[in-house]
Amino acid sequence: MTITRILGWLAAIGLIAGLAAGFGYAPREAIQGNVQRIMYLHVPSVLTSYLAFGLVLIGSIAYLATRRAGWDRLAGAAGELGVLFTGLTIVTGSIWGKPTWGTWWTWDARLTSTAVLFCVYVGYLLLRSLIEDPDARGRYAAVVGVLGAVNIPIVHFSVKWWRALHQPSTILGPEPSPIDPAIGLALFVNWIAFTLLFVYFLSRRMEIARREEQM
Amino acid sequence: MSYARRAWIILWKDFLVERRSKEQLNALLFFCLLLLFLFQFALGPDRERLAAALPGLLWLGFILAGLLGLGRSFLAERENDCWEGLRLSPGDKSAIYVGKLAGNCVLMAVVEIILVVLFGVFYDVDLWTPAAPLALVLAIGTVGLAAVGTLFAAMTTHVRARELLFPVLLLPVQVPVLLATVSATQALLLGQPLADVAHWLKLLVGADLVYVTIGLLTFEFVLEA
Lengths: 215, 225
Hints:
The complex is a heterodimer of chains A (about 220) and B (about 220). Chain A has about 220 residues and is mainly α.
């Protein structure tokens, strides 16, 4: 419990540091101006959601293999947080897109695949909420969790060929990053803060689920 | 009993049930006809607009009919403890999945043939010239749709709000299949050769393999309840 509490405080400090880095330390972006600063929320959100869906996959496979309730709690908690952070990604992306692209939404490849991802995991949560028996819920959810994750690359390619406005990934690409080091650092601080926040939420949510099962 | 034999028994059982009850097919065929009317009323009599929207409409029809047909795959097993019977059947449970999947593919194939013929006649489109490549696209796409549909149908059979949950789970997962088949169908109807849609076919085959594999591996967990 104390570890969780420390994590929570670390996340809070990290988020404040992230805000300071994003608004104070990082320079104003040359072309987009201050609008670009929303990136310090947008990019960490999407990275955190990938982490979450990765954990859903791991928890799902481990639950099917071991049938330990803890793995199902991990998958369920990570699924909820994944939907939350994907939602944040879509909202911050829309707010960023309106002034820079001139539209809230467009059926571009990455936006579409993010939206599809969001829908798959909303379905996952819906399925969980409709089954009372913990073992059946765990098994069914795990099947959807595995299928949803394995489907991500297929969705990615199909949508990419279907529509090809979003800038390609700058950080994860093969070439050295062209990003200003100060912007990179602000991004990094926010990413760490989001990850801490995610782990804090995850451990709290899993604890709540554990107590619910005890009742 | 061999694996194929056990899968065949499931397929044959469902075929017999359907032949004697004619529960699904009659209603589904009539539903297809109604869909045709519905699309016509929604888009108006403009032929060019209909032709432009045709590939999407065709697949929308398959998907809607599929949601109804596939979603019922395991409803018969809910009664008289048939589900227990499936669970108690000897050997690898994925044979049941294969049998059900085959049955669903046959069902979808019948629906698709009817819909394609109806579309060809009512909307006066030439579907005969590209018939062979079109059949290939439909076949590969149908396997992808049915593979996930069969798995999710088994899963949602025992869940509350089954009718609602089945499409909500199936549709987002099927986005790649829908994009690939609609794009490929569109290209073929425009008279492009099959080679032009090779990348879509590869994606579909890849998706089919992934979906069927996951279905085979996870079906026994679904059957447990």
